Amino acid sequence: MSVFRISILFVLAAIAEIGGAWLIWQAVKEDRGWLFAVLGVMALGAYGFIAALQPDAHFGRVLASYGGVFIAGSLAWGIIVDGFKPTMWDWVGSVVALVGAAIIIFAPTGQGADAVS
C-alpha cells in the first residue's frame, strides 16, 4: 500500500477519533446535549473501522504509529476549532511524535529487517 494511502487513512482516523472525543467533550463539559454525545460515539466507532483498514496486520504497530498522528492532529484540532495557541514545545513535541510514527509504520518489516525479540 502506498505511503499516500496509509497517510490518508491516518488523517481520516484522526479526524474521526479527535472529532468524536471533541463531540463527547462538548456534550459533557459544555452541556451541548446528548446528540453531541451520540454523534461522538458514532465517530469513535468509525475511527476503529478506519484504523482497521491499514495494511499492516499488527495492531500494536498501527496504533503506536497512529499515536504520533493523534498528537499532531489534536494540536491542529485545538488550533483550528478551539483557538488554541501552541507553544514552541508543543510544535517540537508534535514533530518528534510524527517522526517516531513514521519510523514505526514505514520501517522495513520483511525478511532481513532487524527484530528485537
Radius of gyration, in angstroms, nearest whole number: 16 Å
Structural class label: mainly alpha
How many domains? The number is 1
End-to-end C-alpha gap = 26 Å
Describe the structure in your own words.
By secondary structure, the protein is an all-alpha fold. It has one domain (3-106). The protein has helices at 3-29, 34-52, 59-82, 88-106. The longest helix is centred in the N-terminal third of the chain and has 27 residues, at 3-29. The radius of gyration is 16 Å and the shape is flat. The chain starts with a helix and ends in an 11-residue tail after the last helix.
Topology:
Blueprint: H1 3-29, H2 34-52, H3 59-82, H4 88-106
Identify the notable features of this structure and list them briefly.
single chain, 117 residues, mainly alpha, 4 helices, flat
Condensed summary:
It contains 4 helices and no strands.
